[in-house]
Design brief:
The chain is mainly alpha-helical and 319 residues long. The chain has 10 helices and no strands. The protein starts with a helix and ends with a helix.
């Protein structure tokens, strides 16, 4: 069996290209999905898995085509995810870590398709829409990890600074919470996803009419904290000689967060126009990617000096 598979062996270089294509596709579906929402086309195909009650296809309406096009793109994303997994089995030399990571991609796409179906069937309920976006962010974690590992051999990186590495990792939960607050702000805002088809969609309203202002303020506070933390880690990385790839990722993160601040302020001042909201969502996805990039670029932390470890052990024994 293995000899037969070896006839179709894939080189590490070709497999790295396959994983990069898969990551691009996984990112693209996030951007088009946000476009569906802000154009009010979320119910352009009012049922699932069919587009209408009697057809897999859509009527020739703008919003139907937008929603149907996003569904069609999902098939290409699924194909790229399956290709990444199948190719991991054919890669030579075979690497178990790449097989396991690549398996997460098709599983994630299937889960995303099912969750998207429930989102439509439940008329774009805020909880489903928020979960749909957050699941995309989780799939991107697997996509970035796979792409990074596929482009490198295990054990090839130099040890990085322990404090910088921990600082970069601390940005992950902070970034995740900020994105979650952002999805809540969108769920409470005017872009419910059904405006184009005339559908009335329930909004997030746990504080009544004051919900949007409340969640936007919390999101802004978290985003500010994330920005300050990113700048602090960026300065720390420069002073402690972090790897160049890590510094580039942190620089990109700081620039993206600065752009997010400007765009967020403008969209709120202009009362959330759809085009700027879409740009804000796009920047949120790319900001998340830059955080993951910084984490991936963080080499294994340097081991503590033997003397320090020995001293700590002796102190513990003395107690």
């Amino acid at each position: 069996m293995l000899q037969r598979l070896d006839r179709f062996a894939i080189t590490p270089q070709r497999y790295a290209l396959i994983t990069r294509v898969a990551l691009v596709m996984l990112t693209l579906i996030v951007l088009t999905g946000a476009g569906v929402r802000v154009t009010g086309s979320g119910l352009g195909c009012p049922t699932w898995p069919k587009c209408t009650a009697s057809s897999l296809y859509t009527q020739l309406t703008t919003h139907g085509v937008i929603e149907f096009g996003n569904r069609v793109l999902t098939f290409f994303v699924g194909f790229a995810a399956i290709a990444a997994f199948a190719a991991s089995l054919l890669r030579r030399p075979l690497r178990r870590d790449l097989v396991l990571l690549s398996l997460l991609l098709p599983l994630g796409v299937v889960a995303q398709a099912v969750l998207g179906g429930f989102t439509v069937l439940y008329d774009l309920a805020p909880g489903f829409v928020m979960s749909h976006y957050l699941l995309s962010m989780l799939i991107l974690v697997a996509g970035v990890a796979l792409d990074w590992r596929a482009h490198r051999e295990p054990g090839g990186g130099a040890a990085g600074d322990r404090l910088v590495t921990r600082g970069v990792w601390a940005l992950v939960p902070l970034g995740a919470i900020t994105i979650f607050a952002g999805t809540a702000a969108t769920a409470a805002g005017p872009h419910a996803g059904g405006a184009g088809t005339g559908d009335v969609i329930k909004r997030l309203d746990f504080k009544g009419a004051d919900t949007l202002r409340f969640v936007v303020e919390q999101h802004a506070r978290l985003a500010t904290l994330l920005g300050l933390a990113a700048v602090a880690v960026w300065i720390l990385a420069g002073r402690r000689g972090a790897p160049a790839g890590q510094r580039r990722a942190l620089t990109a993160l700081c620039l993206l967060l600065a752009a997010q601040g400007v765009v967020g302020g403008v969209q709120y001042a202009l009362e959330l126009p759809a085009e700027i909201v879409w740009l804000h969502v796009v920047l949120a996805a790319t900001t998340w990617l830059s955080i993951l990039w910084a984490v991936a670029a963080s080499a294994a932390p340097q081991p503590r000096p033997a003397a320090a470890v020995r001293g700590g052990a002796e102190a513990a024994a003395a107690r």
